[in-house]
Amino acid sequence: MTHVDERTARRVAEEARETAWRLPSFGKQLFLGDFRLDLIHPHPEAEKKMRRTGEDFLTQIREFCETRVDARIIERDARIPDKVIKGLKELGAFGMKIPEEYGGLGLSQLYYNRALMLLGTVHPALGAMLSAHQSIGVPQPVKLFGTEEQKRTYLPRCVNEISAFLLTEPDVGSDPARLRTTAVPDGDDYILDGVKLWTTNGVVAELLVVMARVPESEGHRGGITAFVVEATAEGITVENRNTFMGLRGIENGVTRFDQVRVPAGNRIGKEGQGLKIALTTLNTGRLSLPAMCAGAAKWSTKIAREWSRVRVQWGRPIGEHEAIASKIAFIAATSYAMEAMLDLSSSLADDERGDIRIEAALAKLYASEMGYLIADDLVQIRGGRGYETAESLAARGERGVPAEQLVRDMRINRIFEGSSEIMRLLIAREAVDAHLSVAGDIIDPEADLPRKAKAVRRAGGFYAKWLPTLVTGPGQRPGAYADFGPLAKHLRYAERASRKLARSIFYAAGRWQGRLERKQGFLGRMVDIGAELFAMSAVCVRAKADDRPEAYELADAFCEQARIRVGELFDRLWHNTDDLDAELAKRVMDGRYAWQEEGVLDPSIPGPWIAPAEPGPSERENVHRTVG
Ligand SMILES: Cc1cc2nc3c(=O)[nH]c(=O)nc-3n(C[C@H](O)[C@H](O)[C@H](O)COP(=O)(O)OP(=O)(O)OC[C@H]3O[C@@H](n4cnc5c(N)ncnc54)[C@H](O)[C@@H]3O)c2cc1C
User: Fold this and answer.
1) Ligand 1 centroid distance, CA of 416 (Å)
2) Residue 183 near residue 213, CB atoms below 8 Å
3) Could you tell me the distance, in angstroms and rounded to a whole number, from the CA of residue 198 to the centre of ligand 1?
4) Which of 417, 430, 495, 532 is catalytic?
5) In degrees, to the nearest 5, what angle opens at C-alpha 380 toward C-alphas 374 and 382?
6) Is 329 a pocket residue for ligand 1 (Cβ < 6 Å)?
7) What b/e string do you get for 547-581 counting C-beta neighbours within 10 Å, with b at 16 or more?
8) Alpha carbon of 368 to those of 106, 131, 308, 407, 561: distances in Å?
9) Using the 8-state DSSP alphabet, how is residue 613 labeled?
10) Which residues is 225 bridged to in the sheet?
11) What's the gap in Å between 426 CA and the centre of ligand 1?
């Protein structure tokens, strides 16, 4: 197994990071205690022509789904029927994000995400297929980084052909530095060798984006590089179709490359640019998941409303029992906020007025975490029916509400396209960047003393100017944000909390210095506070744009709920068991408490009467049939 130390892993991630900020960013300023509401308010509006095109397309998609797609069949057969794929192609759904000049629909980010939201509620496998193809598959990196010739070759094909994005390998998940697939230069070609895991669409795709490592050699700077590869190329085999807890119907595989010859003309960008391309693609591509989560939340609100009115227990509709009422309130308010974050981030991306890197990442993190809580609450509201499959409910004559399916389908959102833990680190890295860029050498373990001393002087100058800005702000003026009416108080709170957050980061940097980057508990809570403040800001801006009393009510309820969560998170920045937990986890891993696991069997290790399955390479030394 390749050994990659932590420093190398960080360096690879750092090199792929986009460091320049060409446009202002609400999210970045938020973590600096600079609450720039003007960057997101008034809510950007879709351009008139795009609105017409987008709405027409949504109408067609809705009609198609209502008349030609049976989600129960996708769930039952774990397959999207060919006629559904064909129908979606005819509607142009595979080319939503492809510019019109290359034969696509050229939809804006806003309408692309609305279409995914709609399709994802029919069955999330449809959303996953289209988003794996367009948000991360061939069209987006080619559009952003391809040559004109590559665009002319591949984009028109992608309107009708399915593509996939292949980065993950058995030993490469969150940490791309371990990437082992190689692309060895050979004349005008590259020869690809390696195995890619969990390739969404990989089983049926016609075109692949493959991330492979080019070795450094004369004339080749080498590094992780992106290639467009024909799925039918000699030497490619799909070895398995993977099945999962949810997302039944996705064509996800294991793809092996054995001496696959790829022309140099298929390389996207330069050698060594692969990860940067992947990350840049994800800047807006990441919004697909919040789109599907927002759709799921809207549907959950509908089901929660309908069921809690008609289900009567203990003399009242269950929605009138306080314990269930609080779940309904959480689902409804959070659903509105999730859509507000999504639409705002998408619209900001469309009118190119700001850099939405942080907003999109916050939306992905927040929507996948909250979406899962919502799905779980929906199951609880439905009681036993929440746990029963839609098929079984229908078989005994009840409405087939797939609540348990929602939990299964939503769980993956916290893992793929950046797991929640990695998203928190990624956002924290950007959030503390202002500190690091002035104080970098102070906390860099490799910097020598003169460099550190210079950094202290530079940082002193920066903080002398910056700290006083964190003491007061509009949030302390009773009349601030008055045009938001009853929501003004929440924006004042968000402004104050943004300064408090920045002060907390400053204290933490002083307290832990270079060790701050290892304080994942602190960094994670800090990011979660930022996510809540962004959600509060987005929902207030949205309610003002929607301009109806019901919108203000929902936004107000959401902000009240969010403020309680923010208060708890601030408290836990300093009062927590993080250090104790880290020590305990170490002892658990060392086996100190293995005796406590006695009395159970491990079903993942078959008994002697069953032919043993070969354990995976990383597990081979570490498995014992009887626990304890
Ligand atoms: C259904 C499905 C579809 C997928 N589709 C694709 C696809 O189309 N293309 C593709 O390339 N990949 C795809 N993936 C892979 C997916 O992106 C990875 O699963 C994801 O990147 C996480 O990697 P991992 O599973 O190896 O987890 P690991 O990286 O092994 O992480 C395990 C756990 O440790 C945490 N962790 C890891 N590093 C750190 C750290 N530094 N600090 C704190 N916590 C950490 C993670 O958050 C996670 O909780 C798919 C996966 C699934 C299940």
Assistant:
1) 6
2) yes
3) 10
4) 417
5) 105
6) no
7) eeeebbebbbbbbebbbeebeebbeebeeeeeeee
8) 27, 16, 24, 11, 18
9) P
10) 212
11) 14
* Domain regions of the chain by residue span: 163-281, 286-431+472-576, 590-622
Q: Percent of the chain having pLDDT more than 70?
A: 92
Fold of 163-281: Butyryl-CoA Dehydrogenase, subunit A; domain 2 (2.40.110)
pLDDT band at 606 (very low <50, low <70, confident <90, very high): confident
Tokens of 284: 């807006």
Beta bridge partners of residue 278, listed in sequence order? none
Residue nearest to atom 14 of ligand 1 (CA): 198
Q: CA triplet 572, 574, 580: central angle to 5 degrees?
A: 85
Closest CA to 372 of 287, 300, 284, 422: 300
pTM score of the predicted model: 0.94
**DSSP output for 301-336:** HHHHHHHHHH-EETTEEGGGSHHHHHHHHHHHHHHH
Give the type of residue at 49.
K
How far is Cα of residue 67 from the mean position of the Cα atoms in its chain? 31
List the one residue out of 193, 86, 210 whose CA is nearest residue 138.
210
Counting from 1 in the atom list of ligand 1, the atom nearest the Cα of 167 is: 11
Paired with 185 in beta bridges are: 190
* CB-ligand 1 contact for 255 (6 Å cutoff): no
417 classed as catalytic: yes
Q: pLDDT by residue (tens digit) across 275-300?
A: 999 889 888 889 999 999 999 999 99
How far away, in angstroms, is 418 Cα from ligand 1 center?
7
Ligand 1 proximity of 307 Cβ (cutoff 6 Å): no
- Cα 334 to middle of ligand 1, angstroms: 26
Question: What is the rounded distance in angstroms from the CA atom of residue 502 to the CA atom of residue 492?
Answer: 16
244 Cβ inside 6 Å of ligand 1: yes
Say yes or no: CB of residue 252 within 6 Å of ligand 1: yes
The domain defined by 286-431+472-576 carries CATH number 1.20.140.10: yes
Q: Is 103 in the pocket of ligand 1 (CB under 6 A)?
A: no
Q: State the average pLDDT over residues 30-46.
A: 95
How many other CB atoms are found less than 10 A from the CB of residue 167? Answer: 23
Strands 207-214 and 223-230 turn out to be antiparallel
Q: What are the structure tokens assigned to 200, written together?
A: 């969404």
